[in-house]
Amino acid sequence: MSEQPAAGAAPTAPDGEPVSVAAPHSPLSPAQLAQLTAADQRIRSIDGAIKLAAWNGYSLLVGACLSGLFSLGDAWGLLSAALLGGFGFAELLGRKRLQRHDRRAPLWLCVNQLLLLGAMLAYSGFHLYVSLSSGSLVDQALHEHPELHGALSSIDDPQVGDLAQDMGTMFHTGVIIAYAALMVSSLLFQGGSALYYYSRKKHLDAFLRDTPAWVLEVRNARG
């Protein structure tokens, strides 16, 4: 009785020589496969923008959710959260368009970042102006509640009043620094993202110019 070959072993001829098994026939010619490979290499200049748009979009949506939770009952806070969420959805939409090689996608993402930058600068600038034009928290409290003057005057220990004044000043300074830092970081990150997205336009144009239409259809079908 002849021995059966082990599972997975290469078939052999009667004389013991291995028999080569031809690979499944590909519907694409070697030239077409080379075109697909070349397209995959050229699109790498766009992959960074796709990843950045995903990070920006999901980060904005998470920030919008957290802002909405902490702004319950505050109409302006909820409006800010809604705007932040809108920018997040627009970013993810631009990412989807870029994945489908939409020629307008880089400009869409660039404009979205510039609008977000304008909103961040307006928000931070307004609060920075309010903080600079007003005094410390202690001064604001005394202005809104004049009766507190008598309460502070009745304290025998002057160090208590000085401590409260110093703490209010420190907090006020911290608020100013925080809004100023937010403005600077927005200029750097949103401004930088907008420039980066815009710089991808020439790469996408070159990709679309040098890539056959059938390759684009295959890539879009693959997602």
Low-confidence stretches: 19-23
Relative helix content: over 70%
How many domains, as an integer?
A: 1
Radius of gyration: 31 Å
End-to-end distance? 53 Å
Q: So what's the oligomer here?
A: single chain
Q: What does the overall shape look like? A: elongated
Kindly report the average pLDDT value.
79
Largest β sheet strand count, sense and barrel closure: none
The fraction of residues assigned to DSSP E strands is: under 5%
Label the structural class. Answer: mainly alpha
Question: How many runs of DSSP E, i.e. beta strands?
Answer: 0
Compute the number of helices. 8
Helices and strands, in N-to-C order? HHHHHHHH
